[in-house]
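Page 47, continued from p. 46.
Same chain as before, 102 aa.
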Amino acid sequence: MTKPISVRHRWEIVFLHLHPYGPHWNIQQIRKYLHLGRQTISHWIEVYQKTKSIEAGKSTGRKKITSSEQDAMITEFALQAPEASTKQIDFEDKENGLSCFF
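Result:
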């Protein structure tokens, strides 16, 4: 997974490439100056052109792997044994036929 770039770098990309008073650098020049990848620079230029913003979009995150019924069983066990660790809960769930990962 790549590290997100700072808001400052996003604005620099936009200014260096697109701003009317900027130098109108190409992607290669921006790469050398900011030490960022071509795809990263292209991505933020495209985002800005579409949205007029440099804010990162909402990430979808990790997909859910348990059903509502399994969630209820996990919650019930956790409430019955509040001192239990996630490893203990995972082990108990496997004994009850559930398979989930923490």
